[in-house]
Structures are given as structure tokens and as C-alpha cells.
Amino acid sequence: MTLRNFDPQTADSLQAELNRQRDGLEMIPSENFVSMAVLEALGSIATNKYAEGYPGKRYYGGCEKIDEIESLAIERAKQIFGAEHVNVQPLSGAPANIAAYEALLEPGDTVLGMDLSHGGHLTHGHPVTQSAKIYNFVRYKTNAEGKLDLENLREMAIEHKPKLILVGYSAYSREIDFERVQEIADEVGAMTMADIAHIAGLVAAGEMNNPVPIFDLVTTTTHKTLRGPRGGMIMCKMKHAKAVNKAVFPGLQGGPHENVIAAKAVAFKEALLPEFKEYARQIKLNAKVLERIFNERGYRLMFGGTDNHLLLIDVTPKGTTGAEAETALDKAGITVNKNMIPDDPRSPMDPSGIRLGTPALTSRGMKEAEMAQIGAWIDEAIMNRADDAKLESIRQQVKLMTAKFPLYEGLEY
Ligand code: DSN
């Protein structure tokens, strides 16, 4: 019985979502398109198996083949990032971070983490999270020039004596000097953690600095620039391996999702290929084209531009807001997300900025020429945000462009 025959309602929604992904320009910087091989592993029979524990030490019988799959994922991740120890079981980025805190900290310990509006992440100590109730997060910010200020970080580290210094961001577009962060941590006797969820694919390809050989612990998601299934991963020094494994299971999670782990293994194999290096390089080239276009057209780029896959853009100089711009772009077939800018005077539901990036479009094969056209469309849509006919005409042009970059050919629900 096929999905369509058994459950046409779900099949209809999946087909409509596939059409949306095909016809539009996906520019949310945390999204990507996995390969058919990753999709196949994700939809595999590995979903049927309970495997609490770790390879060779499970609480259930019949785990021999699952052990092979999980070990493959671990070994490939070690090879990509140069990690001493890897745990591939975290269900996603937030649980990976929660487990990392549990592994490294005691309740009440102080952590230096980046403020959300300056590019940090909710799980880096935002007051709405449970972690913020358990640990004492002190939040640092980018400086007046909009850059990560490691001298200020050092001063704050000396003042607050954190147990952990946390770097790695979800809206920050610049390179991070992990070696300098480690020196600061060494000076104050702190441990180091990086959350490389956004840039993991760029790090894997050698296109951005790699904290894994330097830091105590590194978390990531596997579904952003790394282009794997939706999931998380923790990499750490061997001295933290036991604590990390205990924190993930049984500390936080139950049975690992072995179909997702199989898909991670496949994605990691892809990330080891020379084509992936080319892909990561193109992501950055594409982002640079957008940086140029938005500069030329008078937008205010936060952090002064980009070294990675994303741009955080203040749209208020154009007389609009993040929410309004997101809605107009949606109508034009371009998906971005509204986003706070540093110390945003506006609210999270209608902030001053939009955040956009190039990983998904680059997966479709788009290059500099397409980016130049897309940058122009984004500006046109924002400047004509009240003109539905204009937005519809951009959407039609977007559809013509995306048709030239087929997505999941042959797949139908
Ligand atoms: N939601 C992710 C992002 O969009 O950056 C981070 O968790």
C-alpha cells in the first residue's frame, strides 16, 4: 500500500510542500536540501529498532547491524572534524546543547554566552530556556563596529570567572578565532564549547576555522550547511567522552533514532567527497555576491558583511520591518526569516532585520549569476512590498529560474 493510496491527505500536503520547495527560492540560512541517498536512509527500516545504549553496549538484543551503522557515522564524523570522541545520538541542536551543559557543568556554574540579538542562540542562555534556570549565563555582545570583540570577552571572563566559555552562533556572519578564545579560557581556567550548527558544513570543507581539535567540546546540528538529516551531534576531547555519553543517554534521551543516524552516516560520507569542498566554497562565493548587491542598494548589513553562508540585514532604513519584508518576500516566492538585529529596539515577532543565506540554493546548483538576479529581486520585492501585482510578477520569474534547477527529480507523493 503506497502512502498516496493509504493516506491521500498526508500525501497531498507532502506533495504541496515538495512543490513549494521546488518552485521557490529557499533562503533561510539554516535550511538545506538533503540528497536522495540521505532521504532513503532516513526513510529506512532502521526506524524500527530500539537501541538504547551505545555500539557494543546496548540494553536491547538484535543491535548488531545498528551498531555497524552508528559506528560508521561516528568514525566518519571523527574523520571529517578531527574529533577524539563523537556522540551522534542527540535528536537535534537544542538537546545536544542541553546534554553538553549537563556533561560539563554543575547547577549554578557560570557560562559566558553570546546575546541572542547579537547572533547567539536561545539555548545559549536566553532567560526563557530551562538551562538559564539551572546555570548562571552571562551574555556578551558584539562591539559598536558589529564584530565579536575577543578583548571584551577576555575582560568579561576575568570579571565573571566562568566555568565555560561558549562561542558559535546562529545569526553571526563572521569568522571566529577559536585559538584566541581557547587562550582566554586557559587564562581564566574555563572550559570551551563551540556550537557550530550553522557553519558545520563550511568547517567540514575547510572553508571556516575548525574548533574541534582545539576546544573541549563542540556541538552541531547535522541538517544545516552539513546537509544531512535533521539531528544533532556532540564532539569532544576524550576526557569528556564518558560524561557526554551519560548526559545524552540516559541523562536526557531514550532510544536513539537510528534511521536518522543512518542518514547522518550517509551525509558524512558525502561531506568527505571533493564535491562537498566545492559546494562549501560556492556557498561562500554566493553569499559574497548578495553582500555586494545589498551594499550597492543601500541596506545596512549587520556585522559589516559576511565571511560565511548568511547575511543579517537591517531593513528599517528602507522604511519597512523584518516581518513586513518576510511577508512581501514570501509573496514573491523567496523564503527568508525575520530576525532581531543587535540590541533591536523592535520586538522578536516584528524585528528590524531579515536573515538569509545561500546553502539551499547552492545545493540546487545556483551560482554567482543567479545570486545577482536574486539579490535584485529581493530589493525589488522589499521596495514594492505593497504592490501585490509586482510581487506576483517576481514570483513568476522565480518559478522560471527554479525550473532550471530541478529538485528531487522523479519524486512524487
Ligand atoms: N532554528 C535554527 C536557525 O534557524 O538558526 C537554530 O536553531
Task: Explain this structure.
The chain contains 16 helices and 15 strands. With 413 residues, the protein is an alpha/beta fold. The strands form four sheets. It has a seven-stranded mixed sheet, with helices on both faces. The relative contact order is 0.15. The model has no long low-confidence stretch (mean pLDDT 97). D-serine (DSN) is lined by residues 30, 93, 121, 170.
Outline of the structure:
This protein has 413 residues and is an alpha/beta fold. The protein is 45% helix and 13% strand. The chain is globular.
Give the termini separation.
Answer: 13 Å
Give the helix tally: 16
How many discrete domains? 2
Global outline: globular
Small ligands present: D-serine
What would CATH call the homologous superfamily of the largest domain? Answer: Type I PLP-dependent aspartate aminotransferase-like (Major domain)
Provide the spatial order of strands within the biggest beta sheet: 4-10-9-8-7-5-6
Q: What's the CATH architecture name of the largest domain?
A: 3-Layer(aba) Sandwich
Poorly predicted regions are none
Radius of gyration from CA coordinates = 21 Å
What structural class should be given to the helix and strand makeup?
alpha/beta
**Estimated helix fraction:** 40-55%
CATH class of the largest domain: Alpha Beta
Mean pLDDT: 97
- What percentage of amino acids are in beta strands? 5-15%
Largest sheet at a glance? 7 strands, mixed
Total strand segments: 15
